[in-house]
Design goal:
Elements: E1 3-8, H1 31-41, E2 46-50, E3 63-65, H2 74-84, E4 89-94, H3 102-111, E5 117-122, E6 130-139, H4 143-151, H5 157-166, E7 170-174, H6 189-194
Helix pairs in contact: 2-4
Length: about 200
């Protein structure tokens, strides 16, 4: 299996009031740099960034993918990157998950097989499962599914993941106690100040 990495950073950051990708991580690096480093540490051979045309921070040597349909959330970035993917799997990480660790992607990689990716899930087996689609690994075979969902304007990733798990294209990996903090996201200025 081969791994590409996708940084999802094309959001408008309306609640934050500025581009979240440029916020400083705990060590002073901008979030975009930190997240690309996490994807590299997790073994991504090629890095892609889902970014808008005006986001000039995308570094040389990283492939920019733009949403085919703007205003459609992370599904558009995922669909564009899956179509562009040169590996067998796509490691996906949102820019606003500043505590995410490459260790998590290692756990997901162990659950992957050819044609099958993995995503974390809260409350597995309860009927109230919630997937974590923005720090997950998708098989490139999911490209057609993502394109079809985008075409139908079914933009929520939870139903897509449920269908993919049921079809054997994705595996649900339980998120154990203590790992929840990896999935805390920065959406508004106040949480950043508290970090």
């Amino acid at each position: 299996m081969t791994w590409n990495g996708l940084l999802l950073a094309a959001g408008l950051s309306r609640r934050m009031g500025r581009d979240k990708a440029l916020l400083p991580a705990g060590d002073g690096r901008p979030l975009w740099r930190r997240q690309l480093d996490v994807l590299s540490q997790a073994g991504a051979d090629e890095l892609l960034v889902s970014a808008r045309a005006e986001q000039s921070w995308v570094p040389p040597g990283v492939t920019r993918v733009e949403d085919a349909v703007s205003g459609t959330g992370p599904l558009a970035g995922l669909a564009a990157a899956l179509t562009r993917c040169n590996g067998t799997h796509l490691l996906v990480l949102a820019v606003d998950l500043p505590a995410m660790s490459a260790v998590w992607f290692g756990e997901l990689q162990r659950a992957c097989e050819p044609g099958c990716g993995a995503a974390g899930v809260h409350a597995p087996g309860t009927g109230d499962e919630k997937f974590e689609p923005l720090a997950a690994i998708y098989p490139c075979e999911l490209a057609a599914w993502a394109d079809e969902a985008l075409g139908r304007r079914e933009l929520a990733l939870q139903p897509l993941l449920r269908r993919a798990v049921a079809a054997g294209l994705m595996r649900a990996v339980p998120i154990i106690a203590g790992r929840e903090r990896w999935f805390e996201n920065w959406n508004q200025p106040m949480p950043v100040a508290e970090k």
